[in-house]
Amino acid sequence: MDLVTFRAVLFDFSGTVFRLEQDETWLADLTDHEGESLDLEAQTELMRRMTAPVGQVVDLDEEHLHAWNHRDRDPVLHRKVYLEVLKQSGVPHADQAVALYTRLIDPTQWTPYPDTEAVLKGVSGKGVKLGVLSNIAFDIRPAFGRRGWDAYVDEFILSFEVGAVKPEPEIFRAAVERLGVEPAETLMIGDSEEADGAARDIGCAFALVEPLPTTERPDALLNALRTHNVL
C-alpha cells in the first residue's frame, strides 16, 4: 500500500469517471454509401474510433492529420477531423455525421461510472483537492453540474483551455499549480498508461483503470483510491 499522504487527486474524464456509451437511437438512422443501415459490428467500431484516447484511428491526408494532432487544443480542428473519421468509418452523409458528432460532444449524453459520485464525494469530504484533467475540445462541466457534482471539483483542467495535452508535462504542471499542491502530493487516475501515466514524469503517482463499459466496472475508482490510502 502506498503510504504517501496525497493532498490532491486528478481524474481523467473519458473512460475514467464518465464513458460515452451509445444510445441505440443515435446510430439507428445511419446509412452507408449504398443506403444500407450500419450493422452492429460497424457501429461498435465507429464508437471505438470516436472515443479512443490515443492513436490515429483512420488514414488521414496532411490537412486532416494536422487537425488530428491538434484536435484537443482547438474545437474547430476537433470537429473537422472527427467528421472526417465518421466519413471514413461508414457515415458518408454529412447531415448524419454532423448530427452524431453533435451528440458525441454533448457532455449530458455521457454516462458516469457507478462509483463516480462516491469517489467525488469521498475525496472532497476528506479535504483532498480534486481536479478533472482531460484531453478534450468541449466543456465537460455540464456533465458534473447537472448532477450537482461540480461542487466536489476544485478545478477542471481541459486541454482546449490550457493549450496543452497529455502526455505533455505542461498540462499536469498546470493542474498541480491550480490546485496549489506539489506533484509528489498528487495522484492521477486515468485509463491510459500513455496519456495519463505521463503524470509520473513530473512526480505524480498514477493509478490505471480500464475503460470498460460502466456496467462492467462498478468499483475500480474506489479500489484505486483505497489502494493509495486516499479513502
Largest sheet: 5 strands, parallel
Shape: globular
Distance between the termini: 12 Å
Radius of gyration: 18 Å
GO molecular function, one term: hydrolase activity
InterPro entries: HAD-like_sf, HAD-SF_hydro_IA, HAD_sf
Keywords: Hydrolase
Protein name: Hydrolase
Task: Please outline the helices and strands.
Blueprint: E1 8-11, E2 18-19, H1 24-27, H2 40-51, H3 62-69, H4 75-88, H5 94-104, E3 111-112, H6 116-125, E4 129-134, H7 141-145, E5 155-158, H8 159-162, H9 169-179, E6 186-190, E7 205-208, H10 220-227
Helix pairs in contact: 3-4, 4-5
Keywords: Hydrolase
GO molecular function: hydrolase activity
Pfam families: Hydrolase
Explain this structure to me?
The protein has 231 residues and is α/β, with parallel strands linked by helices. The chain has two domains: 8-19 and 111-228, 3-Layer(aba) Sandwich (Rossmann fold); 24-105, no CATH class. It has ten helices and seven strands. The protein has helices at 24-27, 40-51, 62-69, 75-88, 94-104, 116-125, 141-145, 159-162, 169-179, 220-227; strands spanning 8-11, 18-19, 111-112, 129-134, 155-158, 186-190, 205-208. The strands form two sheets. The protein has a five-stranded parallel sheet with strand order 5-4-1-6-7, sandwiched between helices. Strand 4 (129-134), helix 7 and strand 5 (155-158) form a beta-alpha-beta unit. It is globular, with a radius of gyration of 18 Å. The model has no long low-confidence stretch (mean pLDDT 90).
